[in-house]
Structure formats: C-alpha cells, structure tokens
Amino acid sequence: MASTEDLTVVVPTRDAAPLLPGCLDSVRRNGPGALVVVDGRSQDDSVGIAHEYGATVLSDDGLGLPAARLRGAEAAQTRYLALVDADVVLPDGSLAALLDELVADRWDALQAGLLSVSGPGYWGQALVHHHRTGRSRRWFGLVATVLERNTLLSLGFDDRFRSGEDIDLRWRMRAAGCRAGVSEHTTVIHRFAGDDLAFAHDQFLADGAGLGRMVRTRGARGLRLVGLPAAAAARGMAMSLAEGEARWIPYYWEFARYNYRGMARALREAAGP
Predict the structure, then answer these.
(1) Residue-wise pLDDT tens digits, 96-136
(2) Assuming Cys at both sites, which of 18, 24, 37, 93 could form a disulfide with 55, CB separation 3.0 to 4.6 Å?
(3) pLDDT attached to residue 271
(4) Which of 155, 173, 193 is the last residue of a domain?
C-alpha cells in the first residue's frame, strides 16, 4: 500500500484564520510527507498560522482557488497529493484510509465523504441539511481529495473558472477515461464558516457562477445544467414537506434564486459589454 509519507497535502486559503488551526492540526496528526499552504493574499493571520504549523507557504497572486491548488501541486515532490480545503478537519487515520482506497480500488481521484457542520443560525443549519441530504453529496469534488500528482498536472484547470472548477475537472476526467468518485468508507468534517443569509447567498452565487461557466464552455452539452438549481430546489422542498420540515422551504427558494443570479452573471461576463 502507498504511504502518507509519499503524499503532500495542499491547503488553499484566503482569510481563513478562524478555521485554519483546526484544519492544519488535523493534517499534521495524519502524518503527510509534506504540507503546502497556498494563500490568496489574506488580510488576516492565515500566513502566520500556516508558518506555525510548519507549512511551506506560497501565494496564488490573487488568481483564485484553482490556481492555488495547481501551484501547490507544482511545488510538491511526492507521488500523491491531497487537496484539502481550510474548512475541513481530517479525523485521525482518514488520510491513510483514503489513500489506501485510491490505490486498492484503482481510482484516479477520490474525494472523502463530507459530514457538514455549522453554527446554530438558520442558514448554516439549512446548508448542512442540504449537503447531508442532497444528491450532490455523491458528486466528486475537490474539498478533501487524493490523487496522483501527475494526474492533476496533466489535466490542470481551465483558466476561465474561478468557481465550478470541480465540475469542469470532473467532466474532463470522464472524457479522458479517468475514474473519479466519492469514498463510501472515509468521511471528513466539513465546516461552514458562516451561518447567516449573507454567507449562504455567497455560496449560492459562487455555485451558480460555476454552472454558468460550464454552460458557456460546453455549449449544447452544458445546457442541461441550467435546470439543475430548480430541480434541486424542487426536490428539497418536496422532501421538506414530506418530512414535516417546512422550515427549510425558504432556504431552497433562496438557493434557486441566487444560483440563477450567479449563473446569469457568468453568462453576461461571457457576452461582454
């Protein structure tokens, strides 16, 4: 089996000081060969915290999350990578378990299952409910993902994506014949940094913008994504009513409304002035 000594953890961060100690402490307990933090010009103490945990600290020069992940991969010297977002906490032994599963089952990229948690506010709790019950929980992403370094370097990221790059990468991996999935055996903790309406709106706008970029870059193939927020909202509302949890309905309304706002913005960017 592969060893975590042959794995570099790459953590992109931007103004993540409240979350970063919990993430980096959990990474250190999992014993990777190296830790690289790629900072997005943080205005808080994210860089100082990363240094305290012995990380190699790089900058993404303001180019965003996909560029940060790629710079971390380029700096790594190990065969394997783990892309771990700053809002993730890795249970002890989870990194080794995820790497073992990647190798034993011949995945090209494997994300851990996510157990989402939040503060007590309505919008954070609604985000948690959606993430735990929605179909997207089985969709491959890059929140806590292991893969071979050369796989990521060969595929890279599309420079047109500042969000939605996980969907784009998933589609390109499928086209290249790669196997990417979500572990059914290893779960990590995914923490929402906020639990108010403004935080939820930011999440929805980013998700919608990613879908909009997929539509504009995939043409006719991407058009099916236009109906995704409406379908997810309708499913969530129906489940909420069936389970006697009508309090989640306002969440799903805002989810759909702001996803489409984000999508419209991304499509307008493509159209130009």
Answers:
(1) 999 999 999 999 999 999 999 999 999 999 999 999 999 98
(2) 37
(3) 57
(4) 193
Q: What is the pLDDT of residue 159?
A: 79
Q: Within this chain, do residues 181 and 202 fall inside the same structural domain, yes or no? A: no
* 186/211 same-domain check: no
Rg (CA), the chain: 18
* Same domain assignment for residues 146 and 12: yes
> Given this model, what pLDDT does residue 180 score?
96
Let me know how long the chain is: 273
Q: CA–CA separation, 101 vs 139, rounded Å?
A: 17
Q: Is 167 in the same domain as 246?
A: no
Residue 189 · residue 89 · CB < 8 Å: yes
If residue 84 lies in a helix (H) or strand (E), which one and from where to where? strand 80-84
For the purposes of burial, counting CB atoms within 10 Å of the CB of 166, is it exposed (0-12), middle (13-18) or buried (19 or more)?
Answer: buried
Contact 131, 256 (CB under 8 A): no
Distance CA 180, CA 147 (A): 9
> Does residue 246 share a domain with residue 117?
no
What's the total number of domains in the chain?
A: 2
- Same-domain check for residues 168 and 219: no
Quote the tokens at residue 189: 């903790």
Question: What's the CA gap between 222 and 75, in Å, rounded?
Answer: 33
Give me the pLDDT at residue 2, please: 84
pLDDT at 56 over 80: yes
